UniProtKB/TrEMBL annotation:
Protein name: Glycerate kinase
GO terms for cellular component: cytoplasm
InterPro entries: GK-like_C_sf, GK_N_sf, MOFRL, MOFRL_assoc_dom, MOFRL_protein
Family statement drawn from the similarity comment of this UniProt entry: Belongs to the glycerate kinase type-2 family.
Recorded superkingdom: Eukaryota
Enzyme class, UniProt record, top EC level: transferase
Length: 502
């Protein structure tokens, strides 16, 4: 069977080709459908689409979600994150002569992903300066330079100015401004150690805010007395605006001692740089910030729910019965992958779902919905698409190469192989930003066929999983068949997990 190749186009980005070539015919079309559903999901949260939908310019007025702001050649833009290049480009087109200047910090490689015409405009004709940095989502000297330039611009604003702050996933790494005497290298060590111990994004950002000169509302304070508008693409479960990119325009409402308690939770007190412990200890004894944020308006333009709804509509078009089970999926990736498959097989076999639902933190009403759907699967052969959104974490125990979505998928594939369900089931887990860990993949597909193929090649899938080496595993089986590769999508609303059953 020849590979089925799908062309995925975005308005501003060249998305790589991706393909699906699998032995079984049923798995082949499930793979095709899953990729089409995922493509629809992340394209629904492309910056151009969101800006055009939510932002309007009428005469000398900027209108966002029903709220108006007067403008007259007084607008400045700063931004940081995986989606802000597209957001900034779309806004510049709308604002025209009202935009004075801007600075944005984007991931390495983002400019080269642009279409040549747009890249030429950004680099030679735009009044917005673009800085690339934070390779593999790790703060570096380039992103530190960008943060410094952003700080200088923001600090220079006057009362008559309007600052638009563009924020999306990846923004924390692209706006590093460590609080002295902490160095960037020391701050990186703090975050890396926390991540390796399994700290979730809320915990990571809570620590980042206390160690930063700009996060936790400090960017908005620096902009005073200018008016501040934040346009946010959420990449965190529940859309807490104080956590997205570590909340640079939101009053930090965390308990002052919370960051220090996180360090203690993961037994890192004696492993972190002394400067970090000093800053967190001093912060725990400070008085609460009482500065007014009346000059700030924050707007969420899109989130994981936006992508899930688009995915569900696409699945319905493909004749699946689609069910969105949650947009709050979290936990250790290798465990979640296994539990998702256990939940699905239990539902198909009409076994007790209570334990799986509880472990996955799903709503209790999900039980009835799933049982009804799987009954239709058995009675009239209706295809089912189950959708999950959220973001898992990887507990690093090995030295391999991979990402949370590839690890979740490999874990799910092993569980499918172990349980060997009668129905054909595949799982696709991928990041809407197109990048999963320090790899070129957005995610991967799980199927019994994957494990069977690996074993025919003499590979031991479990050993790869234990070594956090999911990318290497998929590459050695055949990465073009099983990995989901899109390149930078120019957006980020966490991850999408698609499970198809026939």
């Amino acid at each position: 069977m020849f590979p089925t190749v799908y062309h995925c186009f975005a308005k501003y980005f060249k998305i790589n080709l991706f393909s699906c070539k699998i032995a079984s015919m049923s798995t082949d079309f499930l793979c095709k459908d899953a990729r089409a559903i995922f493509e629809t999901a992340y394209k629904s949260v492309q910056p151009l689409n969101l800006i055009n939908k939510e932002v309007e310019i009428n005469s000398n007025s900027l209108q966002i979600q029903g709220k108006s702001f007067p403008i007259f050649k007084n607008v400045y833009i700063v931004g940081f994150g995986k989606a802000v290049l597209g957001m900034a480009t779309a806004l510049e087109t709308k604002l025209q002569e009202n935009l004075v200047s801007g600075i944005i910090s984007v991931p390495d490689g983002m400019l080269t992903a642009l279409e040549p015409r747009l890249r030429d405009h950004i680099t030679t004709k735009s009044c917005i300066q673009v800085y690339e940095g934070a390779s593999n989502n790790i703060p570096d000297e380039n992103s530190l330079l960008a943060a410094t330039k952003i700080s200088e611009l923001v600090a220079s604003l006057k009362e008559s100015h309007l600052l638009i702050v563009l924020i999306s996933g990846g923004g924390s790494a692209l706006l590093p401004a460590p609080k002295p005497p902490l160095t960037l290298k020391e701050k990186q060590k703090v975050i890396s150690l926390l991540a390796s111990r399994g700290a979730d994004i809320e915990e990571l950002n809570a620590v980042r805010k206390r160690l930063s000169m700009l996060k936790g509302g400090k960017l908005a304070l620096l902009a005073k007395p200018a008016k501040v508008i934040s346009l946010i693409l959420s990449d965190i479960i529940g859309d807490p605006i104080g956590m997205i990119a570590s909340g640079p325009t939101v009053l930090n409402s965390d308990n002052l001692s919370y960051p220090l308690s996180i360090i203690e939770k993961y037994n890192l007190t004696h492993e972190l740089p002394k400067a970090a412990i000093q800053i967190l200890t001093e912060a725990a004894n400070e008085s609460e910030m009482d500065d007014s944020f009346s000059n700030v308006s924050n707007f969420i333009l899109g989130n994981n729910e936006t992508a899930l709804q688009a995915a569900a509509e696409k699945a319905n078009d493909l004749k699946y019965q689609s069910i969105i089970l949650t947009n709050k999926l979290r936990g250790i990736a290798s465990i979640i992958g296994r539990k998702l498959i256990s939940l699905i097989i239990a539902a198909v076999n009409k076994k007790c779902l209570d334990e799986n639902i509880k472990e996955l933190e799903l709503s209790s009403h999900i039980k009835e919905t799933m049982l009804e759907a799987t009954s239709q699967l058995q009675s009239n052969g209706k295809k089912i698409c189950l959708l999950f959104g959220g973001e898992t974490t990887v507990e690093v125990k090995g030295s391999g190469l991979g990402g949370r979505n590839q690890e979740l998928s490999l874990s799910a594939a092993l569980e499918l192989y172990t349980q060997k369900p009668q129905n054909d089931i595949i799982l696709l887990s991928a990041g809407t930003d197109g990048i999963d860990g320090p790899t070129c993949a957005a995610g991967a597909i799980a199927s019994i066929t994957l494990i069977e193929e690996a074993k025919r090649k003499g590979l031991n899938p479990s050993s790869y999983l234990l070594n956090n080496d999911s990318y290497t595993f998929y590459s050695e089986v055949n990465n073009e068949w099983w990995l989901v590769k899109t390149g930078h999508t120019g957006t980020n609303v966490m991850d999408i997990v698609i499970i198809l059953i026939i």
